[in-house]
Design a protein that fits this description.
STAS_dom, alpha/beta, Bact_StressResp_Reg, Transcription Regulator spoIIAA, STAS_dom_sf, 3-stranded parallel β-sheet, 3 strands, STAS domain-containing protein, phosphoprotein, 87 residues
Length: 87
């Protein structure tokens, strides 16, 4: 069973109401399955758009970069990313 779901939105150019609603619903579904959603790739303009739309992301873990999100997944699951040796 998955303990974490990582969703990287680095390539998402604009967040509108429909995209924000989809993110919220995805996060709720992940939570219902007993996992945490980790949202990465949040640039300042995307963060401003989410705040402006009144999107509540408190149920998700957020990071500005994919690398930080992957580190969180590793910490939570003990998994190792490709190309990195376990110490």
């Amino acid at each position: 069973r998955a303990r974490a779901v990582l969703l990287d939105i680095t390539g998402v150019p604009v967040i509108d109401t429909q995209v924000a609603h989809t993110l919220i619903r995805t996060g709720q579904a992940v939570q219902l399955l007993g996992a945490r959603m980790i949202l990465t790739g949040i640039r300042p303009e995307i963060a401003q758009a989410l705040v402006g739309l009144g999107v509540e992301l408190s149920s998700m873990i957020t990071y500005s970069t994919l690398q930080r999100g992957l580190a969180e997944v590793e910490r939570r699951t003990g998994a190792v990313s490709f190309g990195r040796a376990r110490s």
